[in-house]
Structure formats: C-alpha cells, structure tokens
C-alpha cells in the first residue's frame, strides 16, 4: 500500500500516511513486547540490577 501510494502522494498524502503510521505502531508494539519478555525471562539481567 505504501509503495503504491508513492505515485499519488502529492495529491493524497493520507494514502501513504495511514498505512505507514499503522506499520510504525505495530513495530513499536512488538518491540516493547520483546523488551518486556526479555526483562521478565533473562536471569542474568536480574542479577545485575
């Protein structure tokens, strides 16, 4: 969707904006879940704190 919207970005920027915001939010959410799981499950990290 993002690559197809490159052709019309000057006419309708929301064609690229909304899918890219959703992709950014998804990547951030997965990253935060991974950090939380690492903090909970890594025994070496608990010893250093």
Instruction: Give the helix level as a range of percent.
Output: over 70%
**What portion of residues belong to β-strands?**
under 5%
CA radius of gyration: 18 Å
Mean pLDDT equals 85
**Helix/strand/pairing category:** mainly alpha
Choose one word for the global shape: rod-shaped
Describe this structure in words.
Keywords: Membrane, Transmembrane, Transmembrane helix. It comes from Bosea vestrisii. This is Peptide ABC transporter permease. There is one protein chain. This protein is mainly alpha-helical and 49 residues long. 78% of the residues lie in helices and 0% in strands. The radius of gyration is 18 Å and the shape is rod-shaped. The N and C termini lie far apart (44 Å). The mean pLDDT is 85.
What is the topology?
Elements (H helix, E strand, L loop, with lengths): L1 H4 L8 H28 L1 H6 L1
Brief synopsis:
With 49 residues, this protein is mostly helical. Helix content is 78%, strand content 0%.
Which features would summarize this protein structure in a list?
3 helices; 0% strand; 78% helix; single chain; mainly alpha; 49 residues
